[in-house]
Amino acid sequence: MLLRFSADMLQQKGKIMLALRPIRILSWLFIFGIFFVPLRAQETPLMIGMELAYPPFEMIDQEGRPAGISVEIGYALGRYLNRPVKIENIPFVGLIPALKTDKIDLIISSMSITKQRSASIDFSNPYLSVGLCLLVSKNSPLSSIAEGNQSKFKFVVKSGTSGEVYARKHLSQAQVVVLDKETSCVMEVVQGKADAFIYDQLSVFQNWKKNPNTTRALLHPFTQEDWGIGIKKGNTALLEQVNQFLKEFKKEGGIKKLGRLFLGPQMAAFEEMGIPFFM
Question: Could you please report the per-residue DSSP string of 53-80?
């Protein structure tokens, strides 16, 4: 009787195990489902486009890795969204086309918010406000942008920047040369081939310090413009997330901390000259 009972018990246990198998499978699927979906979301990289040629905002460090203020903002955004970040180094003029064709998710590349750009992409709320000024050749008689709209003056601007937009709108009588690289624009001024380079305050300051014997800087800005994060039109969910991130990041002092980290000496120099710094 004991042997028969044991056999019966084993047989019944087998039936119970078979009956429970679908439940166990469903349980495991449920458990893995809970954890697997978020992991997939976390592993979807946030593709950020920028031109790594504008230190200290976008640059490449000595080990060949992306670095700079914009890079750190991008990494902070990735942590906020719980997504890994992949930086795509793209020429400035190619950033908006890359965004519109889904090669990147957003642009963080010291990009000014303009009407022309806003017609093709959306922008976040501003995270920095900067101004245009002039890097002037040492021997040029040019003393301000107000006198620049004359045929005797020659300006260089970097392609696709707000400096180019300004020159085309306000300097129709002057000579305007458009070049692809900041270094090329600076060299035109250093060699006396152009009277001035229209660019942002920080870059003008840095290039003046590098070339003090051949250039001078007119650092008081003649325009004020905002930088924003570029996002593809229609991607309202990401736009809202980015705006919320920027609100919290600025509230916590993130922008100012990055300014002190990357631009401490420049901030002090601007303060000494009595020129407001933008961070």
Answer: -BTTTBEE-TTS-EESHHHHHHHHHHHH
The pTM is what? 0.71
* Three-class SS of 19-58: HHHHHHHHHHHHHHHHHHHHHHHHHCCEEEEECCCECCCE
Q: How far apart are CA 198 and CA 135, in angstroms?
A: 7
Does residue 236 sit in helix, strand or coil?
helix
The letter for the amino acid at 110 is: S
- Location of structure tokens 């955004």: 77
pLDDT tens by residue, 145-169: 999 999 999 999 999 999 999 999 9
Tokens matching residue 185: 């624009």
> Three-state SS for 217?
strand
Is residue 199 within 8 Å of 132, Cβ to Cβ?
A: yes
Nearest to 89 by CA among 74, 69, 109: 109
- What is the spatial distance between Cα 150 and Cα 166, in angstroms, rounded to a whole number? 15
Half-sphere exposure at residue 121, Cβ-oriented, CA atoms within 13 angstroms = 27
Task: List, for residues 160-197, the tens digit of each pLDDT value.
Answer: 999 999 999 999 999 999 999 999 999 999 999 999 99
**Burial (Cβ within 10 Å: 0-12, 13-18, ≥19) of residue 126:** middle
Domains with residue ranges and CATH for the chain: 46-130+226-273 (3.40.190.10), 131-218 (3.40.190.10)
